[in-house]
Amino acid sequence: MLSFLLWFPILGSIIIGLFPGKLESSRLRQITTILAFIIFGATVWLLTQFDLSDPGWQFSEYLPWSDFIGLSYSLGVDGLSLPLIALNSLLTIIAIYSIGENVERPRLYYALTLLINAGITGALASQNLLLFVIFYELELIPFYLMIAIWGGEKRGYASTKFLLYTAVSGLLVLAAFLGIGFLNGASSFDYDVITTEGLALNTKLILLTVLLIGFGIKIPLVPLHTWLPDAYTEASSAVTILLGGILAKLGTYGLIRFGLQLFPDAWSIIAPGLAIIGTVSVLYGALSAIAQKDIKRMVAYSSIGHMGYILVAAAAGTQLSTLGAVAQMISHGLILALLFHLVGIVERKVGTRDLDVLNGLMNPIRGLPLTSALLITAGMASAGIPGLVGFAAEFIVFQGSFATFPIPTLLCIVASGLTAVYFVILLNRTCFGKLDNEKAYYAPVLPTETIPALVLTLIILVLGVQPNWLLKWIEPTTDLFVLKVHPIEQVAKLQ
Amino acid sequence: MDFSSNIASQLNAGTILPEGIVIITLMVVLIGDLIGGRNARTWLPYGAIAGLLASIAALYTAWDSPSTIAFLGAFNGDNLSIVFRGIIALSTVVTILMSIRYVEQTGTSLAEFIAIMLTATLGGMFLSGANELVMIFVSLEMLSISSYLMTGYMKRDPRSNEAALKYLLIGASSSAIFLYGSSLLYGLSGGETTLDTISTKILASDSSSSLGLAIALVFVIAGIAFKISAVPFHQWTPDVYEGSPTPVVAFLSVGSKAAGFALAIRLLVTAFSSIIDEWHLIFTALAILSMVLGNVVALAQTSMKRMLAYSSIGQAGFVMIGLTAGTDAGYSSMVFYLLVYLFMNLGAFSGVILFSLRTGTDQISEYAGLYQKDPLLTLGLSLCLLSLGGIPPLAGFFGKIYLFWAGWQAGLYGLVLLALVASVVSIYYYIRVVKMMVVKEPHEMSDSVKNYPEIRWNLQGMRPLQVGLVLTVIATSLAGILSNPLFSLANDSVTSTPILQSTIVNTRISQGETSSSNINP
User: Fold this and answer.
1) Contacts of A152 in chain B (CB under 8 A)
2) DSSP B390
3) CB contact, 8 Å: B423 with chain A?
4) Which residues of B15-32 are buried (b: 16+ CB within 10 A; e: fewer)?
5) Global pTM value
6) How far does B499 lie from chain A, in Å, by closest CA?
7) For B431, which of A65, A108, A144 is closest by C-beta distance?
8) pLDDT tens digit string along A51-99?
9) Is B180 exposed, middle or buried (0-12, 13-18, 19+ CB in 10 A)?
10) What residues of chain B lie within 8 A of the CB of A164, using their CB?
11) B291: Cβ contacts below 8 Å, ≥ 6 apart
């Protein structure tokens, strides 16, 4: 089943990309949408078949591949990866709807979208470290092209910056994995085989740091984040949905899966440092967002902040906080996708993203009332207003990590208040006020543009009111993860 | 009677059957050209390709043959030599495919070109198995002299002339240095020319780590590093690559380089087994310099051929990691990387040739906007360049990961980390070309792409070029995913080669390593 999820989009992408003859843009869009819905249907089916009581790998598949270098084709999902895979297939559909009807060079666009979907699914489902690296780096070129072709003014600069940062990230991860494999003398890189138990603590710390920098670029953590505002702002909204909604999650996923799981004792040593880095990210993201004049840039910085919570929670390593970290990944993916989708609509209709120019979009007749209303909901969800999924996730994060790291958690709560500040600025400047009578002749928002936003809002609302529908998939797995970390952490504390 | 049968078994002439086939093909091409004149050009290249394929088939049957030593010890047809001879022959096959149209268009004789190319191939194939100092030098010169001729083949073009002169002067001096090193070896070993005997004699004598041996080593490496264009000996590469006919560059970058690596393994591992740490050290330095300089200077190139020249210097640096590792995995990762390098580089050069045939230029900036006019070329060239940069799931990624894996396993942490950084740098300049071709908008198209001629594959010699491009691109895309047969081939060629096995065991003992064996094919 996982193989289907992996290979179906790849085949679809090859067929769309290389199919001889001319295809019209709308036909391509139809075909891709159908494929994306099939993929989504398959993930939903997978969710229904998932055994909630089993915290380990499910739907495992194993094929030997290259024994010489310890690479095997082994897939499997657990409570950490399955929700992210579901998020990935959902956001793929949103990204197809978000680009607008008449995308230039549609063939390449849709082929790359499907390829990205496959790569992310592959990375999340890999049970072999080298296989993970393959999929992790597979994302590089499609995203580079996505930014470089369908981006804004400075797309050349932004895409190259993204490419180099991400390539470095991939290589650091590869180096750390090779290190784990060889210093242990393991002949296979299968996740179940590989351990770090035989290593000296210093070696583990070095490897974990390398891993942290590698994944920290992708997340991104504060000193390593400078590619993000450029890439997010210059990419089209649809690409940013994939980029921020799901690619960034590969970083946190990798950190929890490979950092927390493979190095439990080293993790508890560097945990305070991680919590500080996370807190700095949160504060930095929020404060920088306040200063921005461009909506996309604002949302991009907000994304840095929200990813910081995940790091604080993962560093705390309690049952509740790890659960919160994963929930925050999902919630941030949904909210970011909604925000960028709406920003994309505003940009297309109004023609600007400048906060000093936008005004009065709430106007029921000549403005974009539904879009503005949804934008307000999304801003509230992002700022952590109860009743929406953002609050549920953040609350679990704070609750879980307070006992371990009280000061960082308090600072995060403060930053959560700052989030509300810049979203109010954003909403105030865009939705409220008066329309400019000279310029305000906007094209109507089509249903195909609104429906994805409505669906996302619905999911955000439902999961906010009933968070258990999200948590029940994650909880058994994160509980198992923490069992590994916690005893050692206690020991470290006693010492 | 007994004596003559003994001689026959000592000669063991069946070992060089693949080379014999190439010689016959060479003769057929030359005589066919004399008899048939210009009319013969329609079938001659295909005859040459058929001959080379027959030679590869003969190599296949010789795999794992029990008696590999031939010509009284002058030639060793072991599995390692078979792999390298196969790589060289295969690179000639693809080069001929791409040269048909290219040479035709310049109005020179195709048959003479192919004849020289086959001579170079022959030299490279003999070099891969040569086991004796004179034999090594003769085949090295056979390869070099034909390479000079091919480099200057476009004799009306001043750049080609200049490249030939430069290559000749540097090549002849490096051969002389190599020869001086060889003669020192002959003297140090008390008059032995066969490599294994040299090794035993030197180990037995007190000169096993003498200054004389060190000088011989350095002189020999000067000759080898010239062939593989390792950094202090690389200066000819960019100029020769830019000036020579492009198919020749394709051959030099794969065939001639593979021959150089074959020579490096055989000569260094056997004759210099007593000072293995010293040449590992030298090659570490060469690898570091090549990776840094090759990849950094390639950033600043504007000509496609020049960029690929520096890239081939950088790629040689990656391959040298395997040589420095000196383990089973190290040698077989070299073999594997050279195999996939063949597909990647020849695919890239096919694309370059195709573009320059249609537009007459090979400046990188002239590729802008190509995706609209020629999607097949864009796809093929992009895949090959990305594979050279090591992007999964293409062949180059698996080649690199195997090299890094082997290097890491042998404890060369610094070298592997440097290689990782160098490959990020390399991604930047490879993707620059992809960006030109794919990302540019229609209004940013370069002049040559605006005036791009209509694509016609039915011109004389275009079809083989297309076949070569498609086959190499398919191989580049799939050789990574379906890499197991190639991995096994590379591993078997190393593990079943006695000379490598004895040295690897020696090294282990000498270094007092207790680590258990690493890979089990």
Assistant:
1) none
2) T
3) yes
4) bbbbbebbbebbebbbeb
5) 0.92
6) 22
7) A144
8) 888 888 889 999 988 888 888 999 999 989 999 999 999 999 999 888 8
9) middle
10) 424, 427-428
11) B314, B317, B318, B418, B419, B422
| DSSP secondary structure, B81-149, as one string | HHHHHHHHHHHHHHHHHHHHHHHHHHTS-HHHHHHHHHHHHHHHHHHHHB-BHHHHHHHHHHHHHHHHH
The nearest CA of chain A is from the CA of B364 a distance in Å of: 17
Check CB contact under 8 Å for A163 and B421: no
Residues contacting residue A195 through CB under 8 Å, at least 6 positions apart: A184, A186, A262
Instruction: Determine, for residues B438 and A145 on separate chains, whether the beta-carbon distance falls below 8 Å.
Output: yes
| Structure-model confidence comparison of residues B151 and B273, the more confident one | B151
* A chain contacts of residue B402, beta-carbon cutoff 8 Å: 68-69
Cα of A211 to nearest chain B Cα, Å: 14
Cis peptide before B393 (omega within 30 of 0): yes
For residues B348 and B395, the answer to whether their CB atoms sit within 8 Å is no
Model pLDDT for residues A155-211, shown as the tens digit of each residue:
999 999 999 999 999 989 999 998 888 887 777 888 888 777 778 889 999 999 999
- B329/B416 Cα distance (integer angstroms): 14
Those of residues 331-370 in B touching chain A at CB distance below 8 A are 332
pLDDT at B67: 76
- Look at B67-81, B201-215, B257-271, B477-491 and tell me which has the smallest mean pLDDT: B201-215
The two tokens of residue A430 are 């865009």
What is the percentage of chain A residues whose pLDDT exceeds 90?
A: 58
Nearest to A171 among B409, B420, B521 (CB): B420
CB of B484 less than 8 A from some CB of A? yes
Interface contact flag, A134 B435, Cβ < 8 Å: no
Q: Tell me: pLDDT of B500 over 80.
A: no
3-class secondary structure per residue, chain A: CHHHHHHHHHHHHHHHHHCCCCCCHHHHHHHHHHHHHHHHHHHHHHHHHCCCCCCCCEEEEEEEEEHHHCEEEEEEECCCCHHHHHHHHHHHHHHHHHCCCCCCCHHHHHHHHHHHHHHHHHHHHECEHHHHHHHHHHCHHHHHHHHHHCCCCCHHHHHHHHHHHHHHHHHHHHHHHHHHHHHCCCCCCECCCCCCCCCCHHHHHHHHHHHHHHHHHHCCCHHHCCHHHHHHHHCCHHHHHHHHHHHHHHHHHHHHHHHHHHCHHHHHHHHHHHHHHHHHHHHHHHHHHHCCCEHHHHHHHHHHHHHHHHHHHHHHCCHHHHHHHHHHHHHHHHHHHHHHHHHHHHHHHHCCCECCCCCCCCCCCCCCHHHHHHHHHHHHHHHCCCCCHHHHHHHHHHHHHHCCCHHHHHHHHHHHHHHHHHHHHHHHHHCCCCCCCCCCCCCCCCHHHHHHHHHHHHHHHHHHHCCHHHHHHHHHHHHHHHHHHHHHHHHHHHC
* Closest chain A residue to B415, measured at CA: A175
What ipTM was assigned to the predicted interfaces of this complex? 0.91
Q: Cβ A148–B405 below 8 Å, yes or no?
A: no
Of B329, B438, B483, the CB nearest to A66: B483
B386 interfaces chain A, CB cutoff of 8 Å? yes
**Which amino acid belongs to residue B255?**
G
Give the residue on B whose Cα is nearest the Cα of A182. Answer: B409
Residue A196 has what pLDDT? 72
Other CB atoms closer than 10 Å to residue B506's CB: what's the count?
15
Q: Identify the contact set of chain A against chain B, taking CB-CB distances under 8 A.
A: 65-69, 108, 130, 133-135, 137-138, 140-141, 144-145, 148-149, 156, 160, 163-164, 167-168, 171, 174-175, 178-179, 182, 185, 187
